[in-house]
């Protein structure tokens, strides 16, 4: 995983090797095959489904601009041995709308060409007043990004995991890792143990348990509410209707994680104070993409969300930590944190770097890579 800096019309060329240039539609088969080789260990042509998904992801964003999107390293013989996938996303930073980029999969065929990766990395140094970020960086990619001026967002390196049925959650993880998802009746066998554990450690009552309510929220309503619920962040996704609709449509394709679901949180007067987006698989894990909230209402929104997911029958829920959520997360029982991936931002705008330093930035979920099918699909 890594980050990409826009290039000028004059492509970056190694005198002995090849060229770094924007990806085109004609490159999709080669990039898809490279993805399978690097991340799935399969050196074979990609099927049409993967090619179509890659094409949509890399070339069809409403904010697409070839200088901001995916770039590839093409050898002199015309073969593509390295690529950096990027999805353009517009951001609001300190009152100004500017081009942003989600930096995702970084792949290189080390057996054939090591110089390509280096050439792509050299093209990452910021030269313009824009904003780029990666929320899935490996330790190596993090080091590369920090070396060229990136800033880490430490809290968001963490994933929170909230258990509702600890024994069921353990059985689910064992089945996913060792049994190909088949539980062979484990859920029935461990259900009495979870009942015992829940009686011994009853749910903690919240002061606002009756003051807020989880309600269904349609995608059109979410398109209206989401920008409002992140408007207090100094750096945040613009989330225009066209761009957010495109992201939701792509995220909904990731059915491996469950059914893409949107819920709202309302107060006694029926006013929306928050929303959450997740993949629902009752009896398994709820993968939470985004928790959105009016400032100061995060604990109430989180408590309502966890109660809803528990009542829906999930064994656990997991999602990304964010500075604004930490107070509410700290009130939860059976919740732990663990490292997920490094989150790094790259910009030369001083005001954005100041906002990053104080945690006044919103990235992740639909403004990140956790929804991408490339993270766990296409085997």
Nutshell version of this structure?
Helices cover 31% and strands 27% of the residues.
Helix and strand layout, with pairings?
Blueprint: E1 12-13, E2 18-22, H1 28-40, H2 48-59, E3 71-75, E4 80-93, E5 96-108, H3 115-122, E6 131-137, H4 139-147, E7 151-152, E8 158-163, H5 166-178, H6 186-200, E9 212-216, H7 219-229, E10 235-237, H8 241-252, E11 259-267, E12 272-280, E13 285-293, H9 298-311, E14 316-320, H10 326-329, E15 335-339, E16 342-346, H11 350-357
Parallel strand pairs: 5-6, 13-14
Antiparallel strand pairs: 1-2, 2-3, 3-4, 4-5, 4-10, 6-16, 7-16, 8-14, 8-15, 9-11, 11-12, 12-13
Describe the structure in your own words.
The chain starts with 11 loop residues before the first strand and ends in a 22-residue tail after the last helix. The protein contains eleven helices and 16 strands. With 379 residues, it is an alpha+beta fold. The chain has helices spanning 28-40, 48-59, 115-122, 139-147, 166-178, 186-200, 219-229, 241-252, 298-311, 326-329, 350-357, and strands spanning 12-13, 18-22, 71-75, 80-93, 96-108, 131-137, 151-152, 158-163, 212-216, 235-237, 259-267, 272-280, 285-293, 316-320, 335-339, 342-346. Strands 1, 2, 3, 4, 5, 6, 7, 10 and 16 form a nine-stranded mixed sheet that branches. Strands 9-11-12-13-14-8-15 form a seven-stranded mixed sheet. The longest helix has 15 residues, at 186-200.
């Amino acid at each position: 995983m890594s980050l990409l800096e826009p290039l000028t019309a004059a492509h970056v060329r190694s005198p002995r090797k090849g060229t770094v240039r924007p990806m085109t539609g004609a490159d999709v088969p080669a990039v898809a095959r490279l993805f399978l080789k690097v991340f799935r260990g399969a050196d074979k042509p990609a099927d049409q489904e993967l090619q179509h998904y890659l094409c949509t992801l890399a070339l069809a964003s409403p904010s697409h601009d070839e200088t901001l999107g995916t770039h590839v390293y093409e050898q002199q013989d015309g073969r593509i041995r390295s690529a950096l996938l990027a999805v353009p996303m517009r951001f609001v930073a300190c009152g100004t709308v500017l081009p942003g980029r989600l930096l995702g999969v970084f792949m290189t065929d080390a057996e054939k060409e090591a110089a390509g990766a280096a050439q792509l990395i050299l093209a990452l140094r910021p030269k313009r007043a824009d904003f780029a970020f990666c929320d899935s960086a490996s330790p190596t990619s993090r080091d590369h990004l920090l070396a060229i001026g990136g800033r880490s967002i430490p809290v968001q390196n963490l994933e929170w995991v909230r258990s509702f049925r600890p024994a069921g959650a353990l059985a689910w993880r064992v089945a996913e890792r060792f049994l190909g998802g088949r539980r062979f009746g484990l859920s029935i066998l461990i259900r009495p143990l979870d009942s015992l554990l829940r009686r011994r450690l009853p749910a903690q009552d919240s002061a606002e348990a009756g003051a807020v309510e989880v309600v269904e929220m349609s995608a059109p309503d979410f398109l209206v509410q989401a920008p409002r619920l992140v408007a207090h962040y100094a750096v945040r996704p613009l989330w225009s209707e066209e761009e957010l609709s495109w992201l939701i449509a792509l995220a909904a394709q990731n059915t491996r994680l469950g059914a893409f679901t949107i819920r709202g949180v309302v107060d006694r007067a029926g006013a929306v104070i928050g929303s959450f987006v997740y993949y629902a698989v009752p009896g398994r894990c709820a993968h939470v993409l985004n928790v959105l909230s009016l400032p100061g209402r995060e604990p109430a929104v989180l408590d309502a969300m966890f109660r809803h997911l528990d009542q829906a029958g999930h064994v656990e829920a997991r999602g990304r930590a964010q500075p604004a959520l930490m107070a509410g997360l700290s009130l939860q029982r059976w919740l732990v944190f663990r490292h997920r991936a490094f989150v790094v931002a790259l910009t030369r705008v001083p005001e954005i770097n100041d906002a990053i330093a104080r945690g006044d930035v919103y990235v992740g979920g639909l403004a990140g890579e956790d929804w991408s099918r490339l993270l766990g699909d296409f085997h």
